[in-house]
Amino acid sequence: MALTSKITTYNPEWPQRYEADKMLLVSAFGDELIAMHHVGSTAVPQLAAKPEIDVLIEVSEHCNAAARDEVLLSLGYVRGSDLSEGHHFYRRNIGEVRTHKVHICRCGHPSIIQMLTFRELLRNDASLRQRYQDLKIELEATNTGGMAEYLEKKGPFIITALLEVGIRR
Predict the structure, then answer these.
(1) H/E segment holding residue 138
(2) Among 50, 77, 110, 169, who pairs with 5 as Cys (CB 3.0-4.6 Å)?
(3) Are 60 and 107 in contact (CB under 8 A)?
């Protein structure tokens, strides 16, 4: 079973792709929008990644979820399973290729701090970034169980990095 896309070397166009999509995504949110962030590996210069733009959106509440779902669907986003209470997940594919993932979290949700902290750790620590990249490439090469296996096997690395700076997962 394959991953949603292949890991590639860092592409300096990824931040531009985030910025372009950010402008479209804003239309799905009214007063509940607090902030939008580029997260995940494509937000980390020099880090190889699956070329899927991860967007983290902070909202005050999930008060307009049905209307938001309609707008996001019109933009090509399909809602997936909630990753936890207050953490909604959407994905956008072009054909069979995943291009974007959107995480919408209620203000104060632990996932916000975790995603932003891990992104900053990778941006600021070349050794950590290299070890994470090596792990991801190894996991891709040995993967037989698809995305669930890939995420499960890189999870301990992320948890350890967050624990080292005092963030609990």
Answers:
(1) helix 126-142
(2) 50
(3) yes
Backbone region of residue 115 per phi and psi (left: phi > 0; alpha: psi in -120 to 50; beta: other values):
alpha
Give me the residues paired with residue 97 across strands: 94
* pLDDT above 70: percentage of residues in the chain: 99
Q: Is pTM, for the whole model, over 0.90?
A: yes
Dist. CA 43–CA 14, nearest whole Å: 7
Comparing CA positions, the residue from 86, 56, 87, 91 lying closest to residue 72 is 91
- CA 8 – CA 10 distance, rounded (Å): 6
User: What Cα–Cα distance (Å) separates residue 126 from each residue in 47, 75, 121, 130, 164?
Assistant: 9, 36, 9, 6, 16
- Residue 115 sits at φ, ψ, to 5 deg, of -65, -45
